[in-house]
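Extended Data, panel c. Modelled sequence:
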Amino acid sequence: MSQTKAELVNGLSVNAALADAATIDSSGRLLLGHSSARPIAGSTSRTIQIEGTGAESSLSITRNNAAAAGPFLSLGKSRSASVGGNTIVNDGDILGTISFAGADGTDLESRGADIQAIVDGTPGANDMPGALTFKTTADGANSPTERMRIDSAGSVLVGFSSSATSAFQFQ
């Protein structure tokens, strides 16, 4: 016999068959599959967390339509200190990061690799020069180092981050 229960005590918890299905904790974090927030790929507990022991601990985005467009994931950055603001970003600002972390026997905070989008020039109205960087973590280290970059000019830089460097690069 399965039991379902919802309760509100400094947050909301929905339990299906006596397992934590979803929790909104007192800090407003949505926790799916668990009830206690924890930091992953850094020391910050993220706003939405999915945790489990099988394929259910994944995120799926599906778009069903009779057109060429597929699903879309957006990461946005503003320098505004207020929700809804549109303060212009600066050259070098990080627009978004996808981090990959693994348990090291202590926690899940150490990152093995990052993919990062960075402002690569001076932005203006409807003008956002960007670079995409790929970072990996060396053996014995706990944070990634940039290994490859595609800059706003379309140059592919391997082993360095500036096209002014006279090192191996593709164009």
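The chain has a mean pLDDT of 84. This feature is highlighted in the accompanying rendering.
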